[in-house]
């Protein structure tokens, strides 16, 4: 396969890094969305990085494809992006279950800045100056991630997805036909986009092309404009970030949610508002909350904690089962 870069690694202690206080925290991402866990021993990617619709993607297929029927799956990553070894292995896991998996570069070659935990030797502040330096480094990392998020909004990401999905439907029409549509899974940053792809949206919202479009009253718009979507048949998302209650209101395709208990990146009030909205609209959905695990736990990566290892397996099985049953 093509050469791929290995994303930065976070040490084991980073699994339980304390979030900022609610008063300080804004719409940011956890370090678990922007750093990889150590890659499990003996595992390596087996797909390839190539162009699809003019966009870089990681493509991985079942060994029996195209001889045996497959389905088309879009995998949307966290901030570590396309060249993360763990993200690629995650895509391979779904491919081994009968899916042609397309993992697009959501960030156009600009993955999240390295936000790996500071070495323990640097965290043992012994003076006011040490403490000041530590806080300055944390602030700098937060600032870099905020700036990175500002570069990767719906206006930038949705057009990437449009190109990839349209090209994927053409090249893998047999898989789309076999599955009756396109499926999607998303982690962290990518989780929210599963909800958007599963939604019915109007032109006055962020459009499929990513542009904020206001109704043109002279052209007859704004008077019950036609809605578009959903784009996917079914989706599953794990520990999504940057999600608001509004993101659930237009969801029409069945979705499965893997959530972390007391997750500051996906607060309980947002989750409960989403569950309420989906229930009121009679949308087929499931929500599983996992206690005692860090944000980002469902992505491939090695943990020493047996509870996290088992939860990781269970979360994958939850998502896979949902896709298989839809």
* Largest beta sheet: strand ordering: 1-2-4-3-5-6-7-8
Percent range of helical residues: 25-40%
How far do the termini sit from each other? Answer: 31 Å
How confident overall, as mean pLDDT?
Answer: 82
Major β-sheet, in short?
Answer: 8 strands, mixed
Radius of gyration, in angstroms, nearest whole number: 20 Å
Low-pLDDT sequence parts? 1-27, 115-125, 207-212
Number of DSSP strand runs: 8
Strand content: 5-15%
How does this model look, in words?
The protein has 326 residues and is of the alpha/beta class. The chain is 33% helix and 14% strand. It contains 8 helices and 8 strands; from the N terminus they run E-E-E-H-E-H-H-H-H-E-H-E-E-H-E-H. The chain has an 8-stranded mixed sheet, sandwiched between helices. Strand 3 (71-76), helix 1 and strand 4 (99-104) form a beta-alpha-beta unit. Helix 4 (154-171) packs across helix 5. The longest helix has 24 residues, at 128-151. The chain is globular and about 45 Å long. The model is unreliable at 1-27, 115-125 and 207-212 (pLDDT under 50).
């Amino acid at each position: 396969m093509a050469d791929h870069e290995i994303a930065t690694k976070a040490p084991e202690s980073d699994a339980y890094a304390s979030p900022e206080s609610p008063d300080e925290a804004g719409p940011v991402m956890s370090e678990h969305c922007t750093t990889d866990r150590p890659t499990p021993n003996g595992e390596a990617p087996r797909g390839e990085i190539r162009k699809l619709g003019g966009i870089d993607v990681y493509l991985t297929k079942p060994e029996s494809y195209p001889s045996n029927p497959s389905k088309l799956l879009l995998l949307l990553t966290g901030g570590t992006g396309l060249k993360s070894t763990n993200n690629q292995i995650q895509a391979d896991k779904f491919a081994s279950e009968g899916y042609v998996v397309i993992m697009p570069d959501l960030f156009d070659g600009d993955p999240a800045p390295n936000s790996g935990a500071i070495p323990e030797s640097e965290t043992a502040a012994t003076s006011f100056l040490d403490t000041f330096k530590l806080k300055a480094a944390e602030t700098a990392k937060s600032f870099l991630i905020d700036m990175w998020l500002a570069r990767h909004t719906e206006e930038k990401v949705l057009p990437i997805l449009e190109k990839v999905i349209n090209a994927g439907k053409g090249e893998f029409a047999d898989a789309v036909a076999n599955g009756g549509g396109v499926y999607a899974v998303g982690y962290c940053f990518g989780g929210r986009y599963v909800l958007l792809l599963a939604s019915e949206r109007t032109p006055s919202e962020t459009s499929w092309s990513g542009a904020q479009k206001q109704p043109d009253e002279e052209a007859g718009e704004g008077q019950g404009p036609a809605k578009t979507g959903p784009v996917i048949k079914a989706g599953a998302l794990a520990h999504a970030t940057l999600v608001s209650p509004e993101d659930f209101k237009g969801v029409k395709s069945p979705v499965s949610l893997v959530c972390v208990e007391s997750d500051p990146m996906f607060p309980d009030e947002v989750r409960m508002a989403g569950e309420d909205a989906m229930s009121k609209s009679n949308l087929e959905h499931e929500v599983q909350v996992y206690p005692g695990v860090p944000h980002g736990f469902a992505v491939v990566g090695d943990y020493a904690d047996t509870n996290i290892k088992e939860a990781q397996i269970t979360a994958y099985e939850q998502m896979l089962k949902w896709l298989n049953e839809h």
